[in-house]
Design a protein that fits this description.
It is built from 3 helices and 3 strands, in the order βαβαβα. The chain is α/β, with parallel strands linked by helices. Strands 1-2-3 form a 3-stranded parallel β-sheet. The longest helix is centred in the first third of the chain and has 18 residues.
Length: about 100
C-alpha cells in the first residue's frame, strides 16, 4: 500500500482560529499540539469565547483566546458563533 502524504499549506508558525467550543474545540486543540510535537511545527490555537465561557477548558487549553464582544450587548447564547460580522470583527482584532 502506498503512503499518502498531505501537503500543509500553512506556514509552520501559523495561528489557527477555532470557531467552536466545548469538547470538539478541546480535541482540535489537542490535535494541534500533537501535530506540532510530531512535525516540529509551532501552530498556535486561538479560541473565541463569550463571558460565561471564560473559565472553560477549551479557553484555558488554547494558546490564545479572544472574547467575542458586541458593543450593544453582553453575549450569552450560542447565536454569537453564527454572527459572521462579529466573528470577522474578532478575527481582525486578533490579526488572523
Amino acid at each position: 500500500m502506498s503512503e499518502v502524504k498531505t501537503q500543509i499549506l500553512l506556514k509552520k508558525d501559523a495561528r489557527i482560529g477555532i470557531v467552536n467550543r466545548g469538547e470538539p474545540a478541546c480535541r482540535f486543540i489537542r490535535s494541534v499540539k500533537e501535530y506540532n510535537n510530531l512535525n516540529s511545527c509551532s501552530f498556535k490555537s486561538i479560541s473565541f469565547y463569550i463571558r460565561k465561557e471564560r473559565d472553560s477548558l477549551f479557553v484555558r487549553n488554547s494558546d490564545e483566546s479572544f472574547l467575542l464582544e458586541n458593543d450593544d450587548e453582553i453575549l450569552t447564547g450560542a447565536g454569537h458563533y453564527l454572527d459572521h460580522e462579529l466573528l470577522i470583527k474578532a478575527l481582525k482584532k486578533c490579526r488572523m
